[in-house]
Amino acid sequence: MLRSLHVEHYVLIDSLEIRFPEGFIVLTGQTGAGKSILLGALSLLMGAKADAGMISDGADSCVVEGEFDGRGDAALEAAVKAEDLDWADGQLLIRRVVSRSGRSRAFLNDEPVSLPVLTALSARLVDIHSQHQTLLLTDRKTQLSMLDFFAGDAETLAAYRQCWRALQERRAELNRVREEAARLREEQDFLRSRYETLSAAKLREGELAELEAEQQLLANAEQIKESLCRAESLFTPVEEDRASLSATLKDIVAQLEKAGRYIPSLLPLAERTASARLELDDIADELSAVNARTDVSTDRLTQVEDRIGTLYELMRRFSAAGEAELIAERDRLAGLLEGCETASDRQAALEKEVAALEKELAKQGSALSKAREGAAKPFAAEVKSLLKGLELDKAAFLVEIAPAAPGPDGADAVTFRFSATGTAPVELARCASGGELSRIMLCLKALMARYTKMPTLLFDEIDTGVSGSVADKMGAMLSRMGGDMQVFAITHLPQVAVRGSAHYLVEKAVAASGAAVTSIHPLDADARIRETARLLSGAAITPAALANAKALLSEAQSR
C-alpha cells in the first residue's frame, strides 16, 4: 500500500508531503484544482513517460517519491530480489527525478533502476484506473485480459506467448532461408558451370610464370642448341688433328712442370693451370648435360602455348589478375554451391521446427482456451451478482468465446455481452450507457483486485454517469473494497465521498508570486462536513446543505 507521497516542483505542485492510511480514501476538490495533476505525479512514479513540461516554472528538476509497504507480498519480494535490489523488509521507497532536459532517473531504496524494471515492479503495487479506461472496456483485447485475470491462467498464457514468439522467429527465419535457397537454386546451374570450368583447369599457383619461361626456351630452342653444340665442340673438337682443350691444358701443365725444375717460379703456374683444367672439365660436363637435355620439340612448344592461352582466357573470363585469383574464385564458387545444399538442409530443418512449434502452439492454445471456457460462466456470474448490488437487478452479463486465428494472446475471440433489462444481451459497446459502463468497470475492477491481490487501487471518477442511489451503492462497494486493500477514489459525488474512511481535499491557490499552486491535505470532521456540503449544493454552502451533509456523513459512517 501507499504510505506517503512526496512531490517537488511538479507542474503546479511546488512542494507536497502527505501520508495516507489504509482503507477507502476519498479525494475531492473543485474542477481544475489539480486532482489530475496529482494523478499524473503518481503515474510518473509508476513509470509513465517523462518530459520537461512537468517541471514547475523556475525549477531545474522535479521529484516524485512514494513510500510503499509491500510486506507479506511474496511475489513482489521475489521480483525485487530477482533484480538484485534491497527488499528492506518490504519498505520500498520509489523515487523519480526529471531534469530540465526531459531525461529522468528512477530509484528504489536509493538504488538506480531502469524504467522497465520500475514499471514492472510498480505494476504490482498500484493499479491506476483513469477515466479513459472505462471506454477501453468495450475493447475485445481488454475483455480478454480481464477474463484471463479471473481464470488465473497467467502461467498458461505465458507459456503460449513464449511458444508464439518462438514460432514467429522460426517462421521469419524460414522465409529468409527459403528466399535465399530459391535465389541460389536459380543461380546454381550458372555457378556450377563456372566452378567446373575452373576445377577442370587444375590450377596451380605460379604455373603461368613457369610456362612462360619454358615457352621462351622452346621458342628459341634451335638457336640455343646451335650455341651449345658450338661451345661443346670447342671443348672437344671432332677433328682428329686437333687436341681437346683438356688435353691441351694437360700438356701445358707437363711442360711447365718440366721447366719448373730449373725455374721454380713456374711451378705455381703449373698448379693454377691444372686447377683451371679441372674447372673447365666440370664446365664441359655440365655443358654436355644441358645440351643433351635441350630438346627442339615443336609438340611441347604447342602444348605450352596452348596451356598459356587457356590460363589467359580464364583470367579474361573471370576478370582475374593471375592464377591466385582464379583459385580464389574457384573456392568461392565451391562455397556457394555448398551453400545451396546447406540452405536446402537448413530449410528442411526449419520446416520441421516450425511444424513442431505449430503443434506445440496448438496444444498450448487448447489449454488456454479450456481455462478461459472454464472461467467464462463463473466470471459472468460474479459480475452479474455485483451488478445487482448497483441497481442493475435484471441485468444480463455473458462472456462469449469463439474460435479465432491464432495470435499472441491465443486462438480465442472474447466478447462481453450485456443487457440492462436481461433480454437479448448484445455486444457491450453497442448497448451500455456511460453510467452502466462505469458500474460494470467498477465490478470488474473489484473482481480483478480480489484475484490479483493488488495492494492499492486508484479510481479517477469511476462514478461518472451515475447519481442518487446508484452513486450511494457504488460508494458502498468502494468502501467494502477498502476493507481488503487500500482504495483511492477521485470523485465529485457526495454519496461516494461520505463513504471514505479518510477524506483529502485538493485545492488550488495563488501564491505571493502570482503563480497558481496546488496542494492536498486531509480533512477533519468539520472540514469534511463543509466539503460534503459543497459537493451537495455547489459554491454557496447554506445551513441546509451543512445539515444535509452532516446527516449524510453520519448515516454513511454508521453503515
In DSSP terms (H or I, runs of 4 or more residues), the helix count works out at 18
Kindly name the structural category.
Answer: alpha/beta
- Strand arrangement within the widest β-sheet reads 2-1-4-5-6-7
Task: Note poorly predicted spans.
Answer: none
Shape: elongated
Terminal CA distance reads 25 Å
Radius of gyration from the alpha-carbon trace, in angstroms: 49 Å
* Biggest sheet details: 6 strands, antiparallel
Helix content estimate = 55-70%
What number is the mean pLDDT? Answer: 86
Strand elements, count: 15
Question: Which tags fit this structure?
Answer:
559 residues, 6-stranded antiparallel beta sheet, alpha/beta
Itemize the secondary structure elements and their pairings.
Blueprint: E1 2-10, E2 13-19, E3 24-28, H1 35-45, E4 61-69, H2 74-82, E5 91-99, E6 104-108, E7 111-113, H3 115-122, E8 126-129, H4 132-136, H5 140-151, H6 154-200, H7 207-219, H8 221-235, H9 245-259, H10 266-293, H11 298-317, H12 323-388, E9 396-407, E10 410-419, E11 426-427, H13 428-431, H14 434-452, E12 456-460, H15 468-481, E13 486-490, H16 494-497, E14 502-510, E15 516-522, H17 525-537, H18 543-558
Parallel strand pairs: 3-13, 3-14, 8-12, 12-13
Antiparallel strand pairs: 1-2, 1-4, 4-5, 5-6, 6-7, 9-10, 10-11, 14-15
Helix pairs in contact: 5-12, 6-12, 7-11, 8-10, 9-10, 12-14, 17-18
